[in-house]
Structures are given as C-alpha cells and as structure tokens.
Amino acid sequence: MTKDELHAAAMALPGAALDIKWGDDHCYCVAGKMFCATNGAYSNLGFKATEIAFEALTTTGRARPSKYLARAHWVNIEDLSAQDAAEVADWVRTAHALVAAKLPRKVRAELGIGA
Fold first, then answer.
1. Which domain range does residue 38 map to?
2. Residue (of 41, 9, 35, 38) closest to 25 by Cα position
3. Which of 10, 23, 66, 93 has the most CB atoms in a 10 Å sphere around its CB?
4. What pTM, to 2 d.p., does this model score?
5. Can you give the CATH number for the domain in which 54 is found?
6. Number of Cβ atoms within 10 Å of the Cβ of 46
C-alpha cells in the first residue's frame, strides 16, 4: 500500500481527520479519537483491531502488538508498502468502525455515522 492509498482510504471514512502528532506521526482520527497512525514516511502502520484480528495478525507474525496500546488491541505493521492495499483499507475501515462505535450517539449522528 502506498502513502496516497492509505491517506485516501482513511480520509474517505465519515468524520475522518488527519492530525500530525508527536513530531511527524500522521494520526487519523474520528471526533478526535485515533483509529490508525503512521510515521511521516508512511513506512509503517498502527491501528486498532478486533480481538480476533489482533490474535491472528500477532500470532502469525504479520504484525506485532503496539508498544503501549496492545491491551486495547492495537497492532503495528512494519512494512506498509509490502501490504495488499485492499486488505489494509479493510483494516482501516474496521479500526474506524471500532473507534466510532464508542462515540456518543449524538456525535455519531452529527458525523453521519450509523448507530
């Protein structure tokens, strides 16, 4: 997956916004809550995963648990360019949905996100 493909996939989601944090990290957020992040070079990707995806990705070695967010089922993919764009876009959509589901109903409605 390329930088442009990741950016397009993340920004196409309802209420998504890009926020530069911690120097040069590109964090994609919904209502201020981060759902995926990459470094400025877009060479890696961290994202929130379902419990099942977390286990599958980490036990097969495709990803490693995120250093500080593993307990919240975040994973890191080291070589983003070697990943299938459609698969990564699906992970990003799922991460967005997981984070958006925790937002208050009113905020979801304002952003056009289904209940």
1. 3-111
2. 38
3. 10
4. 0.93
5. 3.90.1150.30
6. 23
**How many C-beta atoms lie closer than 10 Å to residue 26's C-beta?**
20
Distance CA 92, CA 111 (A): 17
Count of domains observed in the chain: 1
- Rounded average pLDDT over 41-67: 96
DSSP 25: E
Quote the CA–CA distance of 99 and 80 in Å, as a whole number: 22
Which region, left, alpha or beta, applies to residue 89 given φ > 0 means left and ψ of -120 to 50 means alpha?
Answer: alpha
- Catalogue the E-assigned strands of the chain: 16-21, 25-30, 33-38, 45-48, 64-65, 74-77
Sheet of 33-38: strand order equals 16-21, 25-30, 33-38, 45-48, 74-77, 64-65
